[in-house]
Structures are given as structure tokens and as C-alpha cells.
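ugh ok so i messed up the first submission bc i forgot one of the chains. this is the corrected input, ALL of the components this time, i swear. 1109 residues overall. if the numbers dont match what u have on ur side tell me asap before i send this to the collaborators (the ones from the other lab, u know who)
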Amino acid sequence: MAKKTDKKISSWDFSPSPEGISHIELKDKYDLFIDGKWVKPSSGKYFESINPSNEEKISSVAHANQADVDKAVKAARKAYNGVWGKMSGKERGKYIYRIARMMQEKARELAVIETLDGGKPIRESRDIDIPLACNHFFYYAGWADKLDYAFPNRKVESLGVAGQIIPWNFPLLMAAWKIAPALAAGNTVVLKPAESTSLTALKLAEIIEESGLPAGVVNIVTGFGDTGAAIVNHPDVDKVAFTGSTDVGKIIQKAISGTDKKATLELGGKSANIILEDAPIDQAVEGIVNGIFFNQGHVCCAGSRLFVQESVADVVVKKLKQRLDSLYVGNPLDKNTDIGAINSKEQLQTIKKYIKIGQEEGAEMYQSPCSIPTKGYFCPPTLFTNVAQSSVIVQQEIFGPVLTIQTFRTVDEVIQKANNTPFGLAAGVWTDKGSRIFNLTTKLRAGVVWANTYNKFDPTSPFGGYKESGFGREGGLHGLEAYVKLS
Amino acid sequence: MAAFLLSFSYLFLSLILLKKPMNKLKPFSSDFDPLRHESPSVDKVGVEERVARIQTRSIKNESKIQGLKLVLNMIDLTTLEGKDTPGKVKQMCYKAMHLLDAHPGLPATAAVCVYPSMVGIAKAAVKGSDVKIASVSTAFPSGQAPLNVKLDDTRFAVENGADEIDMVISRGKFLSGEYQFVFDEIAAIKEACGKARLKVILETGELVTLDNVRKASDIAIHAGADFIKTSTGKIQPAATMQVTYTMLMAIKDHYDRTGVMIGMKPAGGISTAKAALHYLVMVKETLGDAWLSNEWFRFGASSLANDVLMQIIKMETGVYQSSDYFSID
Amino acid sequence: MSRLEILKTYKIYIGGQFPRTESGRYYQIQDGKGKVIGNICMSSKKDVRNAVSAARKTFGGWAERSAFNRSQILYRIAEMLEGRRDQFINELMIQGSSKANAEKEIDLTIDRTVYYAGWCDKYQQLLSSVNPVSSAHFNFSVVEPTGVVSIIADENSSLIGMISLILPAIAGGNTCVVLASEKLPLCSITFAEVLNTSDLPAGVVNIVTGKRAELIEPMGNHMDVNATVYSGSNADEIKKLKELAVQNVKRVKTYNKKWMNEESQDLYMISDLQEVKTTWHPIENIGGATSSY
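and heres the new structure output, hopefully the right one now
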């Protein structure tokens, strides 16, 4: 921005505006939520949950082993056979509605905990994660007594016990995506949150306990990969639902290959965000920012590969850089923070590794000159230009605030480049011309296509990928299919 | 016969040339001309999202005090009524210079904004202060008058001491696609302004779409506007964040192309301190701090000043205020 | 003196051509009395590769055909099947069917083809949705074909166990590579001859014959195959296919149905090879202060 000599103030900056945390109730130590009770892990082991924005310990969380998982699956089976599997859809629905309402009433607390535990800006947890999580329960609650309408000419039955493993990028929202449809369809649940973000799932367990949901219908077991493996491999689990990396998804797919377990996998992505020359450029720039910097880029459907038509490439990149400079990176609890903390030290190292690779590959890097807290895990928003389709940073999922920018000349060229990836989760298209939008949205091989928008989510809207981005859908009518048996 | 054919084809050719078909693209090239090129398209839902995001900014403590004082200093205190009298105008001018005498250290407003007939009165009333005189002109608010009347209107205001002229564009002509007419009219008024700065009112409430707002902004800027302004205050909706954002982006693109700064004035409908602060955030995050002075940003408002004053006093005393303690004009 | 019969070599079907296997290997099948009834290609993994290439090449074009056109082509297949009814009955009987069963199988094959021909332009409406999102966006989900599908046909059926898998795949816009029954392969190639005269674009259906033990692997692990469909109940084969699928996250669908039942055909077999794509676009002036209602 040009300096003007005659301006009356040198700058006008926002004073810190942190969300209060005095109303937050967190225990020093969390046990496992099994069969409606809080039980100690059989190993006696706990691990620490760290606030990634200041590296301070928030709480200790139980590490469930195979024996604990077995206990949880047994409780889920008992609840399925004894109560939940037999309950009328109408009654099931009311329980789910009640949970939804109780979550809403605790929305502020959940938002703050999500931000403390995971590092995402309070603006996002308050305005996006938590409301969407509540709404997801509301949406599926209403399905519980209407399942007969969902699949024409078929009888709908529940599957039994669902084992669910969720990632750290949207902890409570992913729990909602998994639990709500499972319960609506009449299944019981054993859910494992990610080790770095267990707390909101445990708060949800408290809400579930308070809601009077029959014991064992939802069990929350915290832990690491071994805990997840115990769920996946448990012989009495009928359904595995996983959201996470493609690598782990493949391990799971292999682990259940000799079984009849039904599975849905929501895996990685390297989604293309395509800007055509007739796009509403300023809104497209916002869409690019929202596409890659939402949740620090920890988004499986992040628009991490930007394609800009050559005739507008210069102006888009220029505007993008200017916009980057106006983003606030810092304390996730500050209401004005746009980009919070990277979720964990390991993830920050991964991101830094890719940034290094990008530089070594000869790509041109731009990082916004924002100040970054000295403590905690932070990464400034980063752009790479002068990259090629064959660059590592263009091909691999970075899962951080790092955008690669490629240019293209024709629509056919960009369709080919966008589809030239093992992934197929999402894509964005920006153009003013309707017929061109439909050409692109039809030919892009991805499960979600945002036209003239990006990173929008809704409980009614099915989400999930093509190709190595996984299979099955979550959300909407299509999301029910993952939790029912049709005959 | 040949001569006839020749002249006929000449006529035909000149018709084609006169038609000047829009060049679809090039909205960002250095030779951008809104009469020849399409303006960048604007997606309304995207603008609404951006604005909503700006409205989540939390302005507290020192930044709030600083921002509120800035807002006061950016106000064009306005009276534009058929029943305006010298008495009313003089009282308003006094208020502009003395927003709250009980509280020293507060700035004056940027200007007072009146009809041409009141310019002389106002000029005398603010004598010796920094408060500028802005006058609406060009058959405000409808603009439905011949060009010579509009020019006379403008010259009259300038001759009586107006520092700034707030003209209206011919919305009817704009909506019927006569962009050249709109452009020429603005250019003519600009010439008539002399040294006075020209604010061009688009009356966005009548342009309806953001695409139209963007186009009109580009035309006004290219025709010589020093400021572009949303509204007369006589049509609803008046200033909105969405419309202002769209106009700010036109200013930004012009600046990026030419290095020339254009001012912005949202007018009408901004009556709370909170809303005004959000406008400042928007300016900061689009054009940058350089525009955060009354040389480049104004609020056209009549009741905003008192709400800002009440907020300032509340922040200092911790007590919510009553309008009984703040003069109404 | 009786006439010497011409033994037919059953060639494989790739990209609308009938090549011999590149392996140069053949196996013979015999009828119940031990009489040789045909020479069958023992396809190699390179044949599978060629078939996948052909299927991939034609996928975009087939998926983009209008639904009505796909329907017309499937109906045309039914017409051509009807014309070869006697040949299929004969082949089924050579392979051990009773006449009544053979007649039933070809009739059901023809009827099932008509059934799926009818689905071509209808399943989309049943499987798609308009989603009432809370924001100012129009949001809809449509189904699109998964892509290239490898089909392991039922080992115990020459015709119906194969076409019951092929039809829902191609009705839904997928292209496929089919491994025919090893011991009952005759009808597969005759069916290919039907396809080849039915306006079906080359490469939409490709059929290879050969040893299951050799070919399940290349059918299951090819990185350019998006889904694998299996009919049967061999747990080892199923596990193997599921494991092979992991490398590129293939969708694996296994069926253990009595294909001779009229009911063994439905919308959900089409849906099993569809991906759901959800599209969002802003809607101006919905729910805002400037709504023009």
C-alpha cells in the first residue's frame, strides 16, 4: 500500500479482543466414557492435551487400549441389542434433538474449548464449527422416524455397532458428522477423537450423559493410532467410519478386507480452485483466501491448488498478496484473529518441510509480513508461484496454509490439470458464465464442487470424495446410506 | 450512384464505430476505460460474506476510542430539507465546530453539507474553522434537469464558497445504457467545480445491482470524480456496507492502475458508532490506512455524531448515556 | 460321411476388436461327455491392461452420452440378443444347461437388458437431490459414474451371472473390463459379438477370458480401475480383491445373488457404481433486505 504523507494517523490497529475463558469448565483429567460411565483406562495411562497456541498443557486424557475398546464395543453391542436397536425412530429422534439443543446451549463453551485445544480462531469455532455441529444433530434427528422414505422400494435396517475415528481439524464437527447419522439410523457408536483434540468430544460425552441417552449408545474412547486400530479390528464392529489421511485410510481399508464390515472413508485431497478471466475477481480472491487459509489450511477439501487463467493471473496474484497482508495471524482466542495456531508441533514440522521443498524446487514464495507469536505453533499464510504440475508441493497434500498457484490458457487445459491427481475431494470454479460453470462442474472429478464460492458446508449437503479421497458420503440423505442395511 | 454507395457505406461504418461494442475483458488492464471495457463483475453473495466477516471484527479499548474520534472527524454533518432555513443551518454549523464543548479534545466534523442556497450562510457560520462547506448540486436529489441548469447550480454553489460539490448522476440515463451521457455530464460538472472537490453521488438504491454500482463507480472515477458517494439519503436503501465495499474495490483498482487516490463517502443510514467503526475496518482492510482520514473518507450523516459522542463518553465513564445530554444539532 | 465341424476359437473383446490373447496361450473346454467344444483365450495381465486402456479411453465419451442415447443402445443390445436367442440356448446347453433352463436364462438376459435400458434415464432422478442449505446458495447432488470398473463375473454362470453385473455398470455410464467365467466362457464372447453389433461404442465393455487364479490380481490392482465388482462367495477371492483395491482406494462391490431370480436386478446395483457430486452456487437476493419477492 502506498504511503501517503498527508494522512492524519499513521495506522489504526485493533486492540486485543480475546474471548473470555472464565466460564470454561475443564477437568484436570478425563477418563473414558464407556457404557454411560467414566471409567479409568485399564493401562492407567494418560496423555497430555496441549494448547498449540502457547504449548501449555490443558488437561490429561486417558489412553484407551484394546481391552478398553473391547469394553466399549461390548457396551455398544449391549445397548444396541437391549435398547437402541429396538427403540422406535420417533423416540430415537427425540434423544438426538435433545442432544442438539443441549449443544446449542453450551455453544460458547464448546467454541472456546475447541479453540484452546485445537488452535483454530475463535471466529471459526464460534461461527462455523459449533453451529454446524449442532445443526448436524438437528438435521439427522428428524430422519430417525422417516427412514422408510429414504430408499425407495427398500426395507431399512440399522447395522449394529459403528466404530468411528475422527481427525483433529474439526473435532466436534466431525464427531457430529459421525454420531448423528449413526444414531438416527439406529446404530450404537464407539468413537475415537484425534489425540491432539479430544476435549470437545469429551464435553460432548458429558452432554450425552446429561441428556439421558441410554448407557452404551455412545462411547467415547480417547487415544492414539493403536486405539483406532483396536476399533477397526474389533470383530464385533459392523461399520467403520474414518476421516483422516489417505495413508491411514488405506491401512483401514486393508485391515477390514477380510471382513464384511461396511466402511466409509473420507480421506485427503489436493483440490483445485479455478479462476477464469471473467470471474468476479474480488470475490474470487476472497474465495481463494477462504479456500486455503480457513482453519490454517487444515481442511481436507482445502483449495490448495490455485489455477488462474493467464490473462488475469497478474492481477489475481497481486490482489491475493494484498489480501494476505490484511490477515491477522496470532492468538486463536482473539476475536480478530484470521489464522490461528497450527494444530500440533508435528504438523508444523510437516508444513515447514513442504515449504522447504517448495523453495528447493525453485518455486517463488510469498509470505505475508505478519508478526507471529514466539510461543506456540504458527505458520504465516504462504503462496508459491512458478510451480509446475510436477512439483511435489503441487502433488502432495500439505494440510497447512500453503497455496500453489499455476496458470492456464484454456478451459480444457485446466480441467485436465485439475483432474490430474489421485485425489478427488473438491474443486472450485469462478466464472460469470453459466454454461461454462456447468461445463466445469460436470467434468471435474470431485465430490464437492463450489462454483463462485468455496468451503461451504451444511448438514443437508452430502460431502465426500472420488478416487483416493475416499468413498461414501456424509451429510444429507446420502449420508444416511452409510449407516443402514437395505433389503 | 457510386458516390451514394460510398456515402451509404460511410454512414454504415460510422454507425458501427459509434456503437463501440464492449470489449468483454480487460477490466484490469492499464488502458481500462469503462466506456469501452466491461467492469469487473461482482458477486453479491460473495460481497455479503466479505461484509459479514468485516462485521465480526471486534473493536475494543484504545482502537475504539481512536476509531470513534476518527469517525467524528470524517462526518459531513448534513441537512438537506425543503424546510431548511438560515437559522437551522447556522445551528448545525455551530454543532459541527463544537461537537461536545463539555469534552475538550474532540475533533470537529469534516464538513457541513447543505443546499446551494444555504452555502453562503454556512460559509459565514464556519468561518475561522477547518470545517469545509459541501453543497449538493445538479438538481439534487433527482438530477432531472438540463445540463445548463446543473452547471449553473454548481457554479452558484462554488461562487458562494462551497469547498466541495456533491453532484448526482443521471440514473435514468445510466439504467438505459447511456454511459457516455453520464460520463460527459460528470466531466462537465467537474470542470464547473474549479478548485472545489467533486463528490459524485451514484444513488445506489436506484442502481439496484452491485454490477451497476461498480460500473457507475468506474465511470464516475474516469470522468473526474474526486470522491464517489453512495446516496442522496432520499432513496432507500441508502448506504450499505455491500455497496460501499463494491465502490471501495473500484477505487482500489483505479489506484492500483494509476496511483491516483479517490475518496469515498457512504451517506444515509449510518447512524450508530458500531456501524461506523465497521466502515472504518472495511476501508482499512481494502484500501489501507492511507484512506483513513477525512481527506479520503467521509460519512454523510446527521444523527451519527451524537451516537459516537455517547459511546466516547460511555467508554470514559463506564455509564450508558442519555440523548438528553447531547445537543441534537 | 459326416461333415467335419469347425471348432470356433473364442477370441477376447477389447476396444471393439476381437484380438487373440497376446499371451498366445489357449485352453480348451469340454462338454459333459468330454468332447472339446471350444478354444478359449488364456488372457494375460497385458490383455487386462489393454482392456483397461480401452475402457479408460472411451469412459468420458460414454459418460457424456445423453441418458436417452444410452437407453437406446441398451435396448438395441436387447434386440440383438433376441436375434441370437437360439445360439445362446445352444451354447448354454453345450455348457450343461437343460433346454428349459437355457431358454429361461436367455429370456431373462434379454428382459434384464430391457430393464436396465429403461433405467438409463431414470436413476439420476431417484439418486439425486436438491439440498436445502441454510446459506444463500443453490445446492444439488447428482450422481456420476465411478469410472472404469473391473468385473469378475460369476464363475458358475455363463451368461446371466455376467450380464447382471455389466448392465448396471454401463447403464450408469461406467465402462468396464470383464473377466468371464473360467469354466463357462462361451456366452461371454458371443455376448461380445452382440455388443459389437449394437451401437455400443468400442471400449465400453471389454471381455477377457482365462484363469481366475492369474487374472484376479491384474483385474484388482490396476491403478486406472476405479471400482471392482465381484459375483460369488469365494472368501479368499473377495479378500484378495479388497486388499488389491487399497492401493488406489477402489470401491469394491460384492454380490452373492441368485441371478436367475427375476428380482436380482435393481436400482441399487446402478447406485453402487455411482459417485455423488454436490455442487454449490450463490443465489443473489435470497432472504436479504433487497429480496424482490
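quick check: Chain B has one domain: 44-319. that seems consistent at least. Chain B is about 50% helix and 10% strand.
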